[in-house]
Structure formats: C-alpha cells, structure tokens
Write a structure and sequence with these properties.
Layout lengths: L2 H23 L6 E4 L5 H12 L3 E6 L6 H9 L3 E5 L5 H10 L7 E4 L20 H21 L1 H5 L5 E5 L16 H21 L5 E6 L3 E2 L12 E2 H14 L8 E3 L8
Length: 267
C-alpha cells in the first residue's frame, strides 16, 4: 500500500477516534431550568446567569406580550426559551407542561411572587388591609408554587437533577424578630409557602425529588430597592450564591429552608 494511502487511513482513524471521544464525553442532554416570574428582578437575574452558564432556560411570564427584558435576553442567548404562564391558572400550567412534554426539567424555580400593590405600603397594615390584594398575594405566593410544582412534576422526575425550588423569605419566619408589624399578607404567604413546600418535600423525597425553600436575602432590586436596609445585598451576588446552593443540593436537603448561601434558617 502506498505511503499516501496509509497516511489517509491513519488520519481517518484519528478523526474517528476524536469524534467518538466527543460523543462519549458530551452530556445526554443540556441541563434545563424553568423559572416563573422571569421577566424582572430575581427571576430575570436567574434567567441571565443560567443562560450564561449554558443551561437551557425556560423563562416564563404572565403578560399578553413578551416583556422587553425577556425579548432582549432571548436575542442574546439562543438557549433561552420564553413562554407564557400565569402561575394561578391550572389550565395554563397544564397546557405549558403538555407543550414541553419530553423536555426534562432539572431545576424548577418557583420565583413568581407578589409583594405589594404598586408601592402602596399601607394596604397590608392592620386597620388598612386590602383583602382583594391579600387574595392575590395568597394565590400567587402560595397556590402558585403548589400548582406549578404539580403541573411540571413528571418533567422534573424525568430529569437528572430532580430539584424544585421555592423562593421564600425570612419575612415568613415565626421565630425571627420583625422590623415592623406591616406586610401582613406577604409575610403570612411566605410562612404558608414554607409549610406547604415542606409537606411537598416529604411527599416527593421517596420519589427522588429534592424540594427546598430559599431566602434570597434583602436584595436591591427595582421593585424593592432596600435603600434603608444596611444588610441589603446586590441582586447578582444573591442569585449567584443561590445557584451555587441549588447546584450543591442533594436529597438529604429536602424540606430545608435555606439562606442564599446554603445556611439553614429558622422559620
């Protein structure tokens, strides 16, 4: 056999071995995260950081049109998929779960939440309670994570990581001191969320699903600037820490209420 022919055969074998090595080393599928309330604040920052890390990001919002923030994010990252989801609508949740059938969700982040009514702080103070607002807060902050977790459970169970996260707050803690007596509906909703998700964690742990509640800290965001809070932290730092904490979770953590950096919190 001629030397040139031998060189071509050798080169072909080398290319074949390199291709085989790449196939064997490549993950079976890209890790996927679904984030509710992804168009602003913590949800948007989660979406951006996971997208930058190469995850497939399913960023959901409840608006009739795609918010500008998510349109820009999807234009920057091809691995960002924007979907509509009102977390209080079982029909929308079931429809999206059906649309995503066959897409394993490694991490489901229940982030969508309501804090107050467009800066009207007194509507959650006793003697001034807006009960319509209270109904909305409870529907979004408590019903929402339960509804979404049920709707997408099969897709979470089909994934590698099998993690469900609920963004909570130490505002819902019954044992930590409070700075004031306001925000009654919001604080009550986070206390209820923690208890509800603790029960979900116990239900799903035997099925290999890890459910935890995370406190992001007093973050500086557009809706909650926390300018008067000396303990306030920057939003990108909080989310980076939470992602590291989520990544390190194992089944033994199921049911824990944790700070962004992984410390267990009382509630």
């Amino acid at each position: 056999m001629k030397p040139d022919t031998l060189r071509l055969i050798a080169r072909g074998r080398a290319v074949g071995l390199l291709c085989l090595a790449f196939v064997l080393s490549a993950p079976s599928h890209a890790a996927t995260v679904l984030i509710t309330g992804a168009n602003s604040g913590i949800g948007l920052e989660f979406s951006e950081q996971y997208a930058a890390a190469g995850w497939t990001v399913i960023a959901t919002h409840r608006h009739e049109r795609v918010p500008e923030s998510l349109a820009k994010l999807a234009a920057r990252y091809q691995n960002v998929r924007v979907e509509t989801l009102d977390v209080t609508s079982s029909a929308e949740a079931r429809a999206l779960a059906m649309k995503l059938k066959g897409v394993p969700i490694d991490v489901l982040i229940n982030n969508a939440g309501v804090f107050n009514d467009a800066g009207k702080w007194d509507t959650q103070n006793f003697r001034h309670l807006d009960y319509a607002l209270g109904d909305t807060i409870m529907a979004v902050n408590v019903k929402g994570p339960l509804l979404v977790s049920e709707a997408f459970l099969d897709l979470v169970k089909a994934s590698t990581q099998k993690k469900i996260i609920a963004i909570s707050s130490t505002n819902g803690s019954l044992s930590l001191p409070t700075r004031n007596n306001g925000a009654i509906f919001y604080r009550a909703s986070k206390a209820a969320l923690n208890r509800a998700m603790q029960l979900v964690a116990g239900e799903l742990k035997p099925e290999g699903v890890t459910v935890v509640m995370l406190h992001p800290g007093a973050v500086r965001a557009e809706r909650t600037p926390n300018t008067d809070n000396p303990e306030a932290i920057e939003l990108p730092f909080s989310v980076k820490q939470m992602i590291a904490t989520i990544d390190a979770l194992t089944l033994k953590d199921a049911g824990r209420f944790m700070r962004y950096d992984g410390e267990t919190l009382p509630w």
